[in-house]
Design goal:
There is one protein chain. It is elongated and about 45 Å long. It is mainly alpha-helical and 67 residues long. It has three helices and no strands. 72% of the residues lie in helices and 0% in strands.
């Protein structure tokens, strides 16, 4: 389970960096790495990042807030 969380976190970080590059510089790192010939692989990576984001919601389950 710890390995899955690390993979999910890595995918979220990759996605966040890619969205930051798109937002600031209009540069899509994932698409530029895999090119237009491998568009399917880019879409799979984007889908995995999205699923990872949804899974990351469970990271908040059971956390206690300390004020």
């Amino acid at each position: 389970m710890i390995a899955l969380r690390k993979i999910v976190l890595a995918l979220i970080i990759i996605g966040a960096i890619n969205w930051g590059l798109i937002g600031f510089f209009r540069y899509d790192l994932i698409s530029s790495i895999f090119g237009t010939n491998l568009e399917l692989i880019s879409r799979i990576i984007f889908a995995l990042v999205g699923i990872s984001g949804l899974y990351a919601i469970t990271f908040f389950k059971g956390q206690r807030t300390h004020v």
